[in-house]
Amino acid sequence: MFIGNLAALICIVAFQAFLHSDAALVAVYSVQRHGARNVLPKGIFLTEDDLIGGPTLLPQGQLQTYNAGVSFRTRYLNTTTCVATSTCLPGFGNGTKYGVLNQPGVGFGNFNLYVRSSSLDRAILSGQCFFNGIFPPDPTDSTNTSYMPTGEQVVPVYTRIDAEDILIRAYTKCSTYQNRLLTWFSGPEFSAKVAESEPLRRQVQMQMPGMDTTLVNWWNVYDAINVYRTYNVGNPVPNFTQSLFNQIQDLAYWLETSKMRSNLTGNLLGGVALADLTNYFRLAATASSNGLQAFYRLLSLSGHYNTQLGLIAALDLDTWTPAQGFSWLRSLPKLAAVMVFELHAIDAAAVTLPEGSWPSFFVRLVYQDGPAASYGTVPLPCMSTAAAVALSPGACTLSDFLSYASARALNDSQAWCAACNNSVLNACVAAKYVGALAAAEAAAAPDGSSGGGGGTEPWKIAVSVVVTFVGTVLLAAVAAAFWFHGGRGRGDADAAAARQFGGGVGNLATQLVVCEDGRGRAI
Ligand SMILES: *[C@@H]1O[C@H](CO)[C@@H](O)[C@H](O)[C@H]1NC(C)=O
Ligand SMILES: *[C@@H]1O[C@H](CO)[C@@H](O)[C@H](O)[C@H]1NC(C)=O
Ligand SMILES: *[C@@H]1O[C@H](CO)[C@@H](O)[C@H](O)[C@H]1NC(C)=O
Ligand SMILES: *[C@@H]1O[C@H](CO)[C@@H](O)[C@H](O)[C@H]1NC(C)=O
Ligand SMILES: *[C@@H]1O[C@H](CO)[C@@H](O)[C@H](O)[C@H]1NC(C)=O
Ligand SMILES: *[C@@H]1O[C@H](CO)[C@@H](O)[C@H](O)[C@H]1NC(C)=O
Ligand SMILES: *[C@@H]1O[C@H](CO)[C@@H](O)[C@H](O)[C@H]1NC(C)=O
């Protein structure tokens, strides 16, 4: 018995030594909160005024996100420091700069780094500053024939119009979620908090007579006070004592984190990002097992605390006891806070795995609560002993992570539009056409697998839609897709793209998940 245990122990220790020596970081998927910005009035549903770009990132916010980028570099890219935490993320050919691949030292290009941001000023600028910290200016590259005069390495930050963004800002567009919030606002828990906070709110109201100090509007009260107090911008506010300010802040934190509980959000706010994350990790593991170099290995969403908390809620971390120590469940992520899903492999280049089974890949969630903090781990509900031994406590095998997260993912815009009851977004209008097309195809299928009554012909779909400009364009696309269905398929297109890039493109031909219908066709 003792001998048995000892043997097992030796085995684990030996195994662990083996794992640690061969472990490699394959990909990271990072989600950041922007830095400090000027005052932002928000609606009770987390919506905000529709000014182009919204309030701007303050100089202090630029520095916060830059510093978060420097820590990120220290943890993942600086070859001197990343070994200490076994978190070196090798780029193409081991390089650690961003630029045109196949230049000395350049490891990240458009082929393996993908930064997306919400279309708001504060997030776009935060993304740029974060990556300035990650790929800093290099005076040795400051030539007048290449690079910027400071050796700056500029990284593209992709974005899409806010009205269509359900990857980073689904939280502003989901009526199912807004209805749940309304129910919660009129329920007993919220009413009790209204009563409990009445003296505090009255006190603030007396000193700020023009302010709406109702509980639903409390975020705006706190934000106006906090931004002026901390950064001296915006309209002057009274100089509240520290103890009163702390109460004001605690109430705002309670309100904002409560709105992001999983029993209110479900996967409505984070489900699309979860689908995106699982998609890229699956692709990275596949590419890496096949020894490919060019696959997306540094993925980043420059977003908002609601983006981060939406993902956390979609993973049900708030109802899972081992994660209760995670401070973001009770107080908001700090400005420029970072959360990173890490995909680790054991000797990834040497193993060939059948598709769908990933015994050598592991996933861990880590976070940094503001640029001055050190990174910590958040245990995931799919954690296992095997993953703890291989990587660290709280980690999951990739298979377990994919099963857990994929079940909560909203895999395409159709799924999100249906769950959120949204028929306004272009993606949702398009989803309706795709749904109608699928129904028509099923009805017309010779095996009659739809079981429905009679085939719907394309012209019937055509006359049944309200023809907006978008509708017209989509209609043409749907008609073309319908008539050419069965012809040249997506697989051929991928192969052609692969040939064009020299065959080693891994996942480059994948479209953004939210732009595809259920069968992987771009819409
Ligand atoms: C890498 O880290 C070392 C040790 O902290 C530091 O001296 C060096 O400047 C860093 N290099 C870069 C490019 O960040
Ligand atoms: C990357 O670095 C490792 C270890 O330093 C080395 O063995 C390997 O050849 C390098 N790969 C490339 C493509 O430079
Ligand atoms: C680069 O700058 C130096 C010094 O300013 C100048 O002498 C040189 O001609 C410049 N080279 C080019 C290619 O412009
Ligand atoms: C606000 O009050 C504190 C003491 O409570 C004081 O130290 C500080 O200087 C005041 N700030 C301003 C801007 O008046
Ligand atoms: C939602 O969860 C919170 C705690 O996370 C709990 O206090 C509340 O009662 C739950 N609401 C419902 C409707 O289950
Ligand atoms: C999302 O897609 C993945 C991969 O195709 C699948 O395993 C998962 O079941 C899907 N999730 C849902 C909720 O349909
Ligand atoms: C969905 O939205 C429509 C209006 O766009 C509304 O009439 C309908 O009641 C909503 N359904 C649900 C379940 O909320």
TrEMBL record:
Carries keyword Manganese? no
Q: Which Pfam families match?
A: His_Phos_2
Q: What is the lineage of its organism?
A: Eukaryota, Viridiplantae, Chlorophyta, core chlorophytes, Chlorophyceae
Under the heading Gene3D superfamilies, the entry gives: Phosphoglycerate mutase-like
Q: Name one GO molecular function term.
A: phosphatase activity
Q: What residue intervals traverse the membrane? A: 461-484
Identify this protein by name.
Uncharacterized protein
UniProt signal peptide: 1-23
Q: Which family does it belong to?
A: Belongs to the histidine acid phosphatase family.
Q: Does the keyword Signal apply?
A: yes
Which controlled-vocabulary keywords does the entry list? Answer: Hydrolase, Membrane, Signal, Transmembrane, Transmembrane helix
Q: Which organism is it from?
A: Volvox africanus
